[in-house]
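Kindly draft a polypeptide, keeping tokens residue-aligned:

***
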Amino acid sequence: MTFGFAPSSAASMSTSADLSAASANSLARMLEPAEWAAAGIPLLRNPREVVSGLHSRHRPKPATAIVAVLDSEERLRASASFTRRAAPADGWMFRNALLSQLRRVIPHDLRRRTPVRTAVLLYCRDGDARWTEEDGAWMWGLRDACTLHGLRCGAYITLTHDGWQVLGEGRGGRRPNANSSPEPFATSESPLPLPRTGGAASEVLRRAAAR
């Protein structure tokens, strides 16, 4: 025989209050498109080249986030991609994930009075290009992660089956998209590495290139 206790009404009310508070905090940790547009986020000179370069390097699928650091000439200095965990959208969690990736791939610039490098975020997801609360949480997380790493907060870009869009700017395009093959674009001075091949075909290509 087992004995148990039924949850009291006070405990139920406490749990409900905790969930409501957590939901309210989560909603507070996101940015609306108007807030993002008013934050003075620097415009990308060539957003399609940036998007194509990141798409070629990381080949994202839905639920993949790519954080990249650009210098003042918009050349890629570092980038990292990771898969979003299946959990409710929360800017604080996104901030921690982005900050962890930034710390892994590039030193911070906290000693500088003014940031000289800019972090941008490309997020590949399902759905259309319209803003979602998940996007708002990513925006909040990117802005906070940049502050903690001494970087300037840059563009937030979504990549869907319809194409890409820089949220808050209204700029976008149909390619690349979540289904397209990588294009030969780069966002750094060094060219993308050629795929490794072997055998006679590789030798023929090498000789042809040498001519």
Observations:
- Strands lie at 64-70, 76-83, 118-124, 152-160, 163-166, 171-173.
- Residues 9-28 form the longest helix (20 residues).
- The CA atoms of residues 55 and 87 lie 25 Å apart.
- The chain has a mean pLDDT of 81.
